[in-house]
């Protein structure tokens, strides 16, 4: 089994349960593009009439909704269109909502829809106190944000560890005494040292974690205890985290884990969290050293680790186990509300010494700000004839990607430099955002225009000049943009 790398070292003093994250105030845009959704509460059914409280989690609208014969009115809002049809065992609710956000540089208007079938008890009351309706955005882009899956084993009767003590099964515990060599599968250099790794299964919820770490750089040493995490999710709310300490001198493994539960999920929707820890000896059996092999392995196939609960957290926010973590900005949000280009290091060479310049080599740097794609681009001394009247015949020139050589062709930068129109720069660029729905990325195409000041020129040869202004910085937003949903 391939062991995952360690993600940092920390002391094992019993894992702390993370606090539920809170969205920052005035985060209308970020919430709209991350959790477009509504919460229904206080639902009552009287014949064909339905009433409830409605909360828009993105815009923070909250009001009473009254429905007669399926047609509903939302108090204080004409932009929310709701229908609700009551049946014998459920209520079908459909929402069509429009709201505006002005917390970013560029305001947006969001149009989203959603629907849900709310189950009723035999007495006509809702099974759950609250119902979450997740929305699909229709504009400004077509987007249905992805949500994380609930944690493994959250709905099992044993999850809460109230009737059974926690325990774990350690499998494939391996100590590797490694010499310097090239891995035949990855073709990467493996540094010498002592390495330890194991697979850990929580017996109550069936969650499996794997992790490994380097105990020492010198394989001849006998190091003290080393602590490592089994995943990058450690310390993140609603993600199961596992921290391990391996004491090589005593061959003792200690672990601490946090996991999440919903007890009696058929009638309860309020999550809880459990933190537990355990310690056990894990004796290793070592293979006979072979001088022709680059490593010696010591293994333990299976060991039980008894544990105990160290902390509980009850009454966690409803729906929080499947909410994405709060984020500010990011590729999609910034592309819609805060994208801009920055141009600097403006230079060109001209084959004559007086105006109008006949430019034969020209370059500058472009950077697409705030879209989290990190593409530095430059023209890299592209040569083409240009005068102050003919410019470059308005031909789009493809920029050269400096930092990301693997960028696909549709994501490169194109520009036009029109010397004759007050040094106008037109920029065209495409980029892809996967942060909200990785399965259906948004491909943005944008254009923008700015004007540059004439840089000062100095003689370069007897028949040419070199013009530059390294202090010039021009930042400007797209003037037009379109988008395409990929894999739709």
Largest sheet features: 9 strands, antiparallel
Q: How many runs of DSSP E, i.e. beta strands?
A: 32
Low-confidence stretches: 1-13, 373-392
Helix content: under 10%
Mean pLDDT: 86
- Helical run tally: 2
Shape: flat
Separation of the first and last Cα atoms: 36 Å
Radius of gyration: 30 Å
Strand content: over 45%
The tally of structural domains comes to 3
Classify the secondary structure makeup into a structural class.
mainly beta
Written account of the structure:
The protein is mainly β and 488 residues long. The chain has three domains: 36-139, no CATH class; 167-313, AOC barrel-like, CATH 2.40.350; 331-485. The chain is built from two helices and 32 strands. Strands 10, 13, 14, 15, 16, 17, 18, 19 and 20 form a nine-stranded antiparallel β-sheet that branches. Strands 21, 22, 23, 24, 26, 30 and 31 form a seven-stranded antiparallel β-sheet that branches. Strands 4-3-2-1-8 form a five-stranded antiparallel β-sheet, with no helix packed on it. The chain is flat. 30% of the residues are buried. Mean pLDDT is 86; it is low at 1-13 and 373-392. It comes from Thermothielavioides terrestris.
